[in-house]
Design brief:
It is a single chain. By secondary structure, this protein is α/β, with parallel strands linked by helices. The strands form 6 sheets. A 7-stranded mixed sheet has the order 1-4-5-6-7-8-9, sandwiched between helices. Strand 7 and strand 8 form a beta hairpin. The protein is globular, with a radius of gyration of 33 Å. The N and C termini lie far apart (about 95 Å).
Length: about 1000
């Protein structure tokens, strides 16, 4: 008997369940490695289910029939792909041969039902798949001898988890092997352990992308505890024979995207397999409709990142073919209310793959007459229309009381939408920013979104027995819950029929947590001031982040513009490998116009070339008698804006009630909020930042208007868990670091070695080498201490990342510790969940680029001989003979193209005099070599410059903005100070 803690025990549990529920045991010896299938099983299926067709082939080929049939099967699979062959079969000499039979939508055709029962589903363990070696897969699932699912199993009791199975697929399963070739054989690959399931539809070495296939655990990621394996739903539900066949027939589809890139057409194919919540939602809705019939409402609360477009497509198709117990269609038509333009084409393509039928989907893009004809004719099974036509639809379908309709309502707003024209005019008449903001706020309060408009229409007519509503939303309002929600009991509050929470989407890695780095202006200022004053920091060059805005009042457009531009240039533009973008959310169209003007003027005045802006607002804004439009300001049409903003030409988008919902731009990293937000509007606006892309680790929000309590209250109903906190105390970083160092987990030698490997660009294996010992030491701790250490490390990593987005400070030891801690955190196992994989080379590469480009770690400082000072030309070493300080202006003007005068020299003279009076500098100069003196000098230099900032704005700004210029000045003054303090020049 197999011990329950071994990997084989999981294999046996899965196999025994499947064998007891209609599956057959496959023999690995019968597997043909060269063809990557079971020829004998396929032939058995054809002979049993299609005897007439097989006998016709016998007339052509005689005793060669079997070999000719298999040869032709393989030929068609290579041409069309496995999925299409399973659905459509192949032909040989004009004889159609089915590769599988699927369950008929009704019981009117008993012959097909009989053939459906003749499918042979086999589960085969330890399949040796390669002609090159004897490697084997834990499990493969076949339909009529054709491989469709591969499985790698792990068990935590053996020291391995689902992440080890994922690594095995990435590094030990050659995607060139026929069994793994995309489309050619297996269609999906599962990594499974007793706690979690992940899957992928394409093996691509280290670039393979696995998705979680978990059911969720109390609103979060993972799976709930159970009496047996937490992952038993996979083989008990998903691989249940009928469900498995439905997956192949009605869910899997090949998505083809074609784009023109650099003048060339690029074609990308993706095999779409549902995530668990998508599959579960569709099946539970269908089961409920079959039980209750038409006339009921369904609320599907699925977060951003849930894949709503695909879920709606699958549901629309299934509802359009759903037959009741009387074998008649339940719905005469399915109407999809959406602004997603992609849905029409996607539905057409997917349904053609499912049913091979054209004309099932009709887009209503003209008028209500076209809609009326579509409803009455009954030719189109799925009708797609926009929310603008909803009022017409609701009247007409109510009149067709002899027909039943399923109405799917998609919350997605058009990203281009503005207010009605008459409302726009009200705002444009405003004479000042304050008046415009006041009018806009009133209009926002009165504005009706999709949910409100639908609620109004339904309230007028009440529930109709022939109409079923399926409402998809991430953020249901109270009205929406009342209309579409289900009450578990008469006295209970209404609930969504199906939930995929924002928290689960974040924990599963599909979206980012936009509240993690959220700071109000008050906190921004307070933290910045703390960095300026806090004596515990080892270095203080971050004072430059404060100097410009420490005294600014936050209610002036020009002053806030300065804060936003400087924050973007200092922090945001280095994110996502230098591609990150920002959005400015303003309180009215007039504000958006003024901000656009202020941004462009400031950028031009400063001579910046790395930031350019676009503006988005509806209609025409009249400001001081002059008319402005979005296309007129930007220089191109409104429809072009998303594509233009996606390019490298523009970095900041300034918006007024536009692009705050439905706008999908993964490169958006930072949002500056200068508008009162509340409720759903706050969630939808801030969620523009949550889209993920390669290299995007986090987001940042700087809010000039709202309080943390406002935002927390807005997100709480949809979020499950919120991380939005109070103002951070800078010293917390050092307190947390001390607590972590008190435990014998993180060793300084490992930190130094890993940081060197990380920034030298070595592969992931080198990083594991320095992290694994810490993981082992962590595992030796008692459980309570493990939880405490991991929680402390998680807080340290989050707080450090947050604070450095406000005003990064250069503390090399702390940043090294953070780099090590961040990677270690991803490796530490969690109770009930496994650690995240560390092998995302793409993500790490972007992270490495980001840190290098920001220059937060200057490793060159640890090799003093490499640091060079200024020469006569401004670029050489300080050991050479120096010109007197009075000639600094001449040298700087020559080296940097400046136009400073001798009068400007007073600024440098007084900075030098301040430094010469510093007792610590005097001691350091007289007891150190020039190389060692540099460290003490750099600690003091910037502070003295900031103290004199009011004397000379021009020189001060250049010192703050241009590192090369600052280095040149610093080296010059340092050389002069060192010589004077060591008696080379007598002090005056």
């Amino acid at each position: 008997m197999t011990a329950i803690h071994t990997e084989k025990a999981l294999e046996e549990a899965i196999e025994s369940h499947l064998l007891a529920h209609g599956w057959r045991k496959g023999s690995p010896d019968a597997y043909d490695r060269e063809l990557a299938l079971f020829p004998a099983t396929f032939l058995e299926f054809v002979k049993t289910s299609q005897p007439n067709e097989y006998n016709r082939l016998m007339g052509f080929f005689g005793e060669k029939t079997d070999s000719e049939l298999i040869r032709r099967l393989v030929q068609v699979i290579d041409r069309d792909g496995m999925l299409k062959v399973i659905r459509k079969g192949c032909d040989i000499y004009g004889v159609p041969i089915k590769a599988a039979f699927f369950r008929p939508v009704s019981g009117l055709n008993p012959e097909i039902l009989t053939r459906y029962g003749q499918n042979i589903l086999t589960v085969t363990r330890q399949v040796h798949y390669s002609l090159k070696n004897e490697k084997s897969l834990d499990m493969v699932l076949f339909i009529n001898g054709l491989p469709v699912v591969t499985v790698e199993l792990k068990n935590q009791f053996t020291g391995q988890t689902v992440q080890d199975a994922i690594r095995q697929y990435k590094r030990d399963r050659d995607p060139r092997e026929l069994l793994f070739q995309f489309k050619k054989r297996s269609l999906v690959h599962f990594a499974v352990d007793p706690n979690e399931v992940y899957m992928t539809t394409k093996l691509d070495g280290d670039d393979t992308f696995f998705l979680p296939f978990n059911s969720g655990n109390q609103g979060g990621a993972g799976n709930p505890p159970s009496d047996g394996f937490r992952t038993a739903y996979l083989w008990e539900e998903v691989w249940q024979k009928d469900n498995f066949m439905d997956l192949l027939q009605k869910f899997l589809h090949l998505q083809v995207d074609e784009k023109v890139k650099n003048g060339k057409k690029v074609r990308k194919e993706t095999m779409i397999f549902p995530r668990y919540h998508q599959w579960d939602a569709v099946n539970k809705i269908l089961a409920d409709v079959l039980e209750k019939g038409p006339g009921h409402n369904y609320l599907i609360q699925h977060s951003a990142g849930s894949g709503k477009t695909n879920t709606i497509s699958w549901l629309a198709h299934r509802l359009s073919n759903l037959h009741g117990s009387d074998d008649k269609p339940i719905f005469d038509a399915v109407i999809v209310i959406t602004d997603r333009l992609v849905l029409d084409r996607q539905l057409q393509d997917a349904i053609y793959q499912f049913d091979h039928v054209q004309g099932v989907v009709q887009q209503i893009d003209k008028n209500s007459r076209q809609l009326k004809q579509a409803l009455e004719s009954g030719k189109a099974k799925i009708i797609i229309s926009t929310i603008q036509k909803f009022g017409v639809i609701s009247k007409q379908v109510a009149d067709l009381s002899n027909k039943n309709f399923a109405i799917i309502v998609d919350e997605a707003h058009s990203s281009q939408s503005g207010k009605a024209a008459d409302a726009v005019k009200e705002v444009l008449a405003a004479g000042s920013l304050e008046e415009a903001e006041h009018i806009q706020r009133d209009l926002d309060a009165k504005a009706k979104d999709v949910e409100d408009r639908i609620a109004e229409e339904l309230a007028k007519r009440g529930r109709q027995k022939n109409l079923s509503y399926f409402a998809f939303t991430a953020t249901p309002k109270a009205k929406t819950l009342e209309l579409f929600g289900r009450r578990p009991s008469p006295d209970a509050k209404p609930e969504p029929f199906h939930l995929y929470s924002m928290r689960q989407a974040i924990e599963e890695g599909f979206i980012l947590d936009v509240l993690q780095n959220y700071v109000t202006y008050k906190a921004y200022y307070k933290l910045a001031k703390a960095i300026e004053d806090d004596p515990t920091l080892e270095e203080k060059p971050a004072k430059k982040a404060i100097a410009r805005f420490a005294s600014l009042h936050p209610h002036n457009v020009a002053q806030k513009t300065e804060i936003m531009v400087e924050h973007f240039r200092r922090i945001t533009r280095h994110k996502i490998g230098g591609r990150a973008k920002a959005m400015v959310v303003t309180s009215s169209r007039l504000h958006a116009l003024r901000y656009k003007q202020a941004f462009d003027e400031y950028i031009k005045r400063k001579g910046y070339t790395d930031v350019a802006t676009l503006v988005a607002f509806s209609g025409t804004v009249i400001d001081q008698g002059e008319e402005f439009t979005e296309p007129g300001i930007n220089g191109f049409g409104e429809k072009e804006l998303p594509e233009r903003f996606d390019s490298d030409d523009y970095q900041v988008l300034i918006v007024a009630d536009k692009y705050q919902t439905g706008f999908d731009q993964p490169l958006l990293h930072t949002m500056f909020v200068d508008k009162k937000l509340s409720g759903i509007q706050a969630v939808q606006t801030l969620s523009r930042l949550n889209r993920k892309c390669a290299g995007k680790q986090d987001t940042f929000v700087l809010d000039f208007v709202n309080t943390p309590e406002d935002i927390q209250a807005a997100f709480q109903p949809y979020y499950e868990v919120t991380t939005l906190g109070k103002e951070s105390d800078l010293n917390l970083i050092f307190d947390l670091k001390s607590r972590l160092e008190a435990q014998p987990i993180i060793w300084q030698d490992d930190v130094e070695a890993l940081v060197e490997a990380f920034y030298m660009g070595k592969d992931a294996a080198a990083l594991h080498k320095y992290l694994d010992p810490a993981v082992e030491r962590y595992l030796q701790l008692p459980e309570k201490e493990r939880d405490e250490f991991r929680s402390t490390l998680s807080t340290f990593v989050r707080i450090y990342g947050f604070i450095t987005q406000i005003a990064p400070f250069q503390s090399v030891p702390v940043h090294k510790f953070y780099t090590y801690g961040r990677l270690l955190l991803r490796k530490l196992p969690v109770r009930g969940r496994v650690a995240l994989d560390l092998d995302d080379e793409v993500e790490m590469q972007y992270y490495r680029l980001e840190e290098k480009s920001k220059g937060r770690i200057e490793l060159v400082r640890e090799t003093p001989g490499m640091v060079e000072g200024i020469t006569d030309a401004g670029t050489g070493g300080y050991h050479k003979k120096e010109a007197p300080l009075s000639s600094i202006i001449e040298v700087l003007n020559k080296a940097f193209g400046t136009e400073f005068t001798e009068a400007d020299r007073l600024f440098f003279d007084q900075v030098e005099a301040d430094i010469l009076r510093d007792e610590e500098i005097v001691k350091a100069a007289r007891s150190n070599t020039m190389e060692n003196f540099r460290y003490a000098f750099e600690d003091v230099f910037l502070g003295k410059v900031i103290d004199r900032m009011g004397m000379n704005d021009k020189i001060f700004a250049k010192l703050m903005d241009e590192p090369e210029f600052q280095t040149a000045v610093k080296n010059w003054i340092m050389g002069s100070v060192y010589r004077k303090l060591n008696g080379e020049h007598p002090m005056q």
